[in-house]
Amino acid sequence: MILHLLLILILILTSTSPSSSQNLSPSQSKTLLRLQRLLEYPSSLSSFSSNTPFCYLPPSPSLSISCSSSLLTSLSITGDKPPSLTLSPTFSSDSLFTTLSRLPSLTSLSLVSLGLWGPLPSKLHRLSNLKSLNLTSNHFYGSIPPELSTMTNLQALILRGNSLNGTVPDLRPLSSITDLDLSGNLLGPDFPSLGKTLVSLVLARNHFHSPIPPWLQSLDKLQKLDVSSNRIVGNIPPFLFSLSSIQYLDLSGNGLTGAFPASVACADELGYVDVSNNLLTGGLPLCLRSNSSKIFVLNSGNCFIGGDPKYQHSGSYCNQGALAAVLPPVEKKSGSKSQLGLILGIVGGIIGGAVVVSLLLFVALRRMKQETFAYDGKLLKKSDPGLPSIQVAPRTPAETRHMSQAVRIGTIGLTPYRVFSLEELEEATNDFDPEHLIEEGPQGKFYKGWHRDGSTIMVRCIKLKQKYSTQSLLQFTETISKLRHRHLVSILGHCVVSGQDNANTTIFLVMEFVSNGTLRSHLTEWRKREMLKWPQRVAAAIGVARGIQFLHTVAVPGIVGNNLAIENILLDETLTAKINNYNLPVLSKNKNNKIGSESPFSTCEGSEFGSVEHGEKEDVYQLGLILLEIITGKPTQSRSELDTLKLQLQKSLAENTAKLKAMTDPTIRGTFAYDSLRTAVEVTLNCLSNEPKERPSIDDVLWNLQYSVQVQDGWASSENLSTQS
């Protein structure tokens, strides 16, 4: 009897042993092994083999697998790809989702930070049993496929931190969805159509431009609404604050206008409201005032009456911003105008603007229809050879002010800013030992140091030549604390040491230390460093453009006229480009020295640039010089060399593809798509226009460089497919 029981026990233990892969069906085991190859062997999947007991793997932050009846029901993979890196050109998003469709029992799929890129294929809807889909922090681009709206079992859809663009398809058929996060993309301009079951809706950091729709008041289950850092216009609907379940409301960084109605009521559960950095006037409603509510409220950067003047603009700021949204730019003319003339001008501007916009849309649509052609499934702009043309879309003043919110996405993941003590810096630099001195010049002394946490830092020592008020110093340090971005050598903190009455003040800026060489060294020192191929070069140029965009919008006025020589572009270990030696805002010399109405700083002491706009165009010109060397591999030592090289590029564009390819750096020939190269050359020539007004804005440069990348990605995919066939 005992022997019989022992045999039964052995059989039970053997049948439940995880030592074999029979816990998952053979076909699904093969699918996971294929995923391992498609995802290019991320560390979390590196140990996969045909003997892996997939259903018995212990869950971890990077990998989690669940099974039921020998079928995979949940798969979560989190990689460690830096935001600037993607999988190789051989990766295919279509192949990925074709493979995933072989797992029809999946109810939860999470693929995060894996460097995935390409369009989201329509076959995504084959995963019809999915309840949760999370593709956060990848590089998917193009539109969201309309077929996604047929996935009626979806309860959570998270596409945060990609490059998806265009109008969001109608998602009302998703009758079970409670969580929708489309933040950090390029979606817009219309507010998406959504169902009534939502509990959390996050659309932050996109290009939504329409007013807040009235149908949102039907979302009686909505607890969180975040539409920050878009371009949403119009008044704030009062019903938002009284939605029956609302707890969190973020409307910051938009173009919302007008005053709150006096009758605004707040829901009992509402605990967080952010309406900062809009164009709001009047005063906060009673339920949002800090002295009468438990709600945490942020409201700076508007024109509220009675608010702290340090954090609120004057009424003219919001009025001009509101008009800028509907009025076309108007040239200033000398002489006074009558009130009647002003009114007629405004009315005429509105009517004329509407007519012009209508005509432009009509012409643009006809031109788009006539001058586009298909390339690897994408729609590309067609231009005549030899005629560099760049689409320039001037920003309105309101858009310029609010752009700063959108570009701050590049600050995510950086070490928090802090105030250092002098003792910490003395310890880090061995009492500012001359052996640690890296550089000394007009911008101060630069020391290399080692912080207590083991990180390498750079300490910049700036001695002020005159006495400044405590308030000015505080405003200065507040501004420099914002100079943190993935594509800047960022400021990590500061230390201010002042003598009596703030005389003999020294400011120490603690900055990150980047030690992987300059962009030029990676273009020329092929014996020492990794030579950059075409995709890496364009990625570096995009990084520089994003850094410039951030500097131009992080403060009012922007930080312009920066030293953007290619020797001042550094690359870190992941080949991320970082701008070094950019300008700092300078303390005003006295309270009457104002650059603009809101800022006590000038952009550069002793600057040769007469205006912010001129300085912006000078930065674009210097970016053109960097692009020129990235493309040709040839530094220009004189104006005559520059003019000769520009002329050669213009002629090669007008003649044939072979001529233009022959102009490129020999080390990258054969690694680029011609249309990707042509777009970059056209951008470069426009940046190098002799007339500043003819140079594009940094936003347009960035748009076209990103377009060049998409063309390159499509070409690389098609090349790979043709090689395999």
From TrEMBL:
It holds the Pfam family PK_Tyr_Ser-Thr. The chain crosses the membrane at residues 340-365. One of its GO terms (molecular function) is ATP binding. Keywords: Glycoprotein, Leucine-rich repeat, Membrane, Receptor, Repeat, Signal, Transmembrane, Transmembrane helix. GO terms for cellular component: membrane. It is found in: Membrane. Residues 1-21 form the signal peptide. Residues 432-707 form the Protein kinase domain. InterPro entries: Kinase-like_dom_sf (IPR011009), Leu-rich_rpt (IPR001611), LRR_dom_sf (IPR032675), LRR_Rcpt-Like_S/T_Kinase (IPR051824), Prot_kinase_dom (IPR000719), Ser-Thr/Tyr_kinase_cat_dom (IPR001245). It is a single-pass type I membrane protein. Its main location: membrane. This is Protein kinase domain-containing protein. It comes from Dioscorea zingiberensis.
